[in-house]
Amino acid sequence: AKKFAENGVKELVIVAQDVTAYGIDLYKKYALPDLLKQLCKIDGIKWIRLLYCYPERMTDELIETIKTEDKVLNYIDIPIQHCNKEILRNMYRGGDEQSLRELFAKLRREIPGVVLRTTLITGFPGETEEHFEHLREFIEEVRFQHLGVFAYRAEEGTPAAAMPDQVEDRVKEWRRDLLMEAQADISAEWLSRLEGDRLSILVDAPHPEWPGLHTGRAWFQAPEIDGMVYISGPGVEPGALVDADIVECRDYDLVALA
Fold it and tell me: Cβ(183)–Cβ(149) under 8 Å?
C-alpha cells in the first residue's frame, strides 16, 4: 500500500471472497479494523473501499471503524445472494430476512449516508415463484444503492448441481431481468437527488470516443462494478481527484463539470 501511494495511487480496494474474515488465519481473530487503521496512516491514500463483507461478521468494532476513519469510505458491499432462509441454508449461508433487514437498518442508523451494495442470485435450485416475488419485495423495500443480479448456473461437481427442483434457464433469466428493472428505478431515483451537488471525482481514464471527456467515479462508485461519472473540465486527467458539479443523472451514471 505504501508503494502504491508513492506511485500516485489514491484509492485502495480491499477485496476478498470474505474480506471481513481478515486476520483469522494470521492472528486467530477478526482483525480488519486493525488493518484499516494502519492503512489510514499512509500519506497519499485518500479512499479505502471494502468489497465483499459477510453480513454475520459486520461487527460493532468494524462498523465504528468505518464510521470514524475518514479515509474508509462509507460504502459497504455485502453480497447476500437471497433473503429466503431456506434458499440461504441450501447455499450454505446463515441468516434470514429478519437478520438482514436488521443489519441494513443498523448500518444506516450508525453510519449516516452509508451506501450499500449487494448481489443476488435468481433461480437457485428450489426457488419458487413465491420465493422470487418475496425477494423482489425485499429489494424494493430495502432499496440498495447498488445491486448486481446473476442467474444461477449449475457447476459440475457442486452440491447445488445435484439438488432437486432445478429452475429452467429462461425462468432464471426472466427473474434476473425483473430485479434489474426494479433496481434501475431505485438507482435513478437515488442519483437524481445528487443533481446540483458538488462532489470529489476520481478520474480513471480518457473516454475512448469523445476527446476532452473522461470517465471517473465518486466515492460511492466502485471500479468496474458500479456506475461511473462522465467528467470534463480543467484539471481533469487520469489519477486526479477533482471537485465537480453534477449536471445530469442517468439510470446508473452521472455527468459532471469540473
Answer: yes
Taking each helix axis as running N to C, give the angle between helix 97-110 and helix 60-68, from 0 to 180 degrees, rounded to the nearest 10.
30
Query: Could you give the CA distance from residue 201 to residue 216 in angstroms, rounded to a whole number?
Result: 6
Place of cell 440461504: 88
pLDDT in tens, 158-196: 999 999 999 999 999 999 999 999 999 999 999 999 999
CB of 68 within 8 A of CB of 36? Answer: no
Q: The cell 460493532 sits on which residue? A: 60
Burial class from Cβ neighbours inside 10 Å (0-12, 13-18, 19+) for residue 182 reads: middle
Q: Give the bridge partners for 198, in sequence order.
A: 245
DSSP code of 191?
H
HSE of 236, CA atoms in CB hemisphere, 13 A: 26
Q: Are 200 and 242 in contact (CB under 8 A)?
A: yes
SS3 content of the chain, % helix, strand, coil (to 5): 35, 25, 40
d(CA 256, CA 235): 13
Whole-angstrom distance, CA of residue 77 vs CA of residue 56: 13
C-alpha angle 89-91-96 in degrees, rounded to nearest 5: 40
**Alpha helix segments (H runs only) across 55-96:** 60-68, 85-90
Residue-level pLDDT at 152: 97
Instruction: For residue 245, give the C-alpha cell.
Output: 458539479
Instruction: Name residues of the chain where pLDDT drops below 50.
Output: none
Nearest to 124 by CA among 80, 168, 93, 177: 168
